[in-house]
Structure formats: C-alpha cells, structure tokens
Design a protein that fits this description.
Residues 158-255 form the HTH araC/xylS-type domain. This protein has 263 residues and is of the alpha+beta class. The chain has ten helices and eight strands.
C-alpha cells in the first residue's frame, strides 16, 4: 500500500473546513472531499465511519477521527448522530499525526471538543485558542486506536476483499476465496501481510466489527449482531468485539444510550 502523503495545501488558501454541531440521521453520507485545514470529527452520540484511499476508520462515541489537510475523505453516520466538527488550523497540524487516524477520547478531550463546537460566544479573549491548545495536548498524549480497515491495491487481493465486503458473514476459507480470485492461499496470505499489514483472519475480524458497530448503533441486539456478522455464537463475538473496540457490545450500547441522553 502506498505510504506517501498527499501534497500539503497552501497555508494562505481560504479555510474551507466547517466547525460546529448538528444531528444527522442514520445512514447519512458525505461524499469524498478535501479540506485546506485539519479536521476532527466526533460523534458525541452515534457512530462515524471515515473512508480515505488508505481504507476506512470507524469511531464510536469513545473515539474521535482526525483527518490532516489535503486528504480526500468521506463520512457515513450510523444511528442518529450528534456530530461535532472542529477545525484544526494548518499551523497546529504539525503537532498531530500526518495521516488519518482515530484516537481515544478522554473526559477532558470530550468536554473541550463539546465546548469548542457549541454555538456560544467566546467568554474571554483568547479562551477558544487556549481550549484548542488543550485539545492538541490531549491528542498528542492519546493512544492511537484506529479501528482501521486498510484496502488493497493488488487486483487478486481486492477480488477477495470485495467478496467479503459484499458478505462479511461469508464463512469461506482463504483457500476457497483464492479459487475465485485466481490466487493460491499462500500468495493471498503473503499479500495480506505485506500490503495490508495484518493477517486474513485479522482483516476479516475488523471488517465484521465495523459492520457490528453499525448494527449495534442502530439498535440490533448483541445476539442478532453476532449471527448477522458471521460469528458462530455470541460469546466469541463478545470476545472479539472487546479485544478490538476495548469494551463489550453491551457496554458499547449502554454508552450510546447515555451519550444520547447527555447530548
């Protein structure tokens, strides 16, 4: 997978990144676009998926999505979403990662983002800039938790991932998928590691977790989500979800309800 960064925008160009807050319906989709500054997108309630040429990042309410200047990206929202958009000026973007990513949201970071995206006047001169500095500091100290699903460029590997995107619950082995793609299991296994940086099993697990997050956000039960996304039983689904997301599906849904009530 190409690791080169897209060209940096001209810092003197007009700032085209929106800031603010609003509620979006389940399934709302923003087509790929670019910004002249950096952007943080936080779903205070609901779940957000951000897609770039490097793959898809998913951010439930305990994570925030970061997109640097110049990266083409699109968004899709799951569940009724309280979305918060925060512009990061170009001169501050160098303090953050130079590629799209997702970070854990600390209580302080959450409150700072909510305050900066609220529709209210600045209480004291410079207050907003100081609060933005808090956001940068919190992100600099936060652990990247990407929930990143990379996408391949190799045609054989793309044939396999396309089949799984179409049906994440498909139980086929890599050997069976390879027959459709015209490649051996050994070749495909090597491509998953060299091009996507993970095993076939790990990639399919994250794909299924992405779909599970969308279903859970939309109110599907844990058991039904497990079956729909390809797990043989709820217990194995709960273990996988907890390992990838950092909380159980039940806790995730409870936090969604609490976030929606607080918002």
């Amino acid at each position: 997978m190409t690791k080169s960064r897209q060209p940096s925008p001209d810092p003197s160009a007009p700032l085209l990144v929106p800031s603010g807050a609003g509620w979006l319906p389940h399934g709302y989709h923003l087509e790929p676009h670019t910004h002249n500054a950096g952007q943080l997108v936080y779903a205070a309630a609901g779940t957000l998926a951000t897609t770039t040429e490097r793959g898809t990042w998913v951010a439930p309410a305990n994570r925030v999505t970061w997109t640097p200047p110049g990266f083409a990206h699109g968004h899709r929202f799951y569940g009724r979403t309280d979305v918060r958009l925060l512009t990061i000026p170009v001169e501050l973007c160098g303090d953050l990662l130079p590629y799209p990513s997702v970070f854990a949201v600390s209580p302080l970071l959450r409150e700072a983002v909510l305050a900066l995206t609220a529709d209210r006047p600045e209480a004291r001169p410079g207050a907003r800039q100081r609060l933005l500095g808090v956001v940068i500091d919190e992100l600099s100290d936060s652990t990247e938790q990407s929930l990143h699903l990379p996408e391949p460029r190799d045609d054989r590997l793309r044939a396999v991932t396309d089949l799984l995107h179409a049906d994440p619950a498909r139980p086929a082995t890599l050997t069976e998928l390879g027959r459709v793609a015209g490649a051996s299991e050994r070749t495909l296994s090597r491509l998953f590691h060299t091009e996507l940086g993970m095993s076939f099993h790990r990639w399919r697990t994250i794909l299924r977790i992405h779909h599970a997050l969308a279903h859970l956000t939309n109110g599907m039960s844990v058991t039904d989500t497990a079956v729909t996304c390809g797990w043989s039983n709820p217990s194995s689904f709960i273990d996988a979800f907890n390992e990838v997301v950092g909380q159980t599906p039940g806790s995730y849904q409870a936090n969604l309800r609490n976030s929606a009530a607080a918002a």
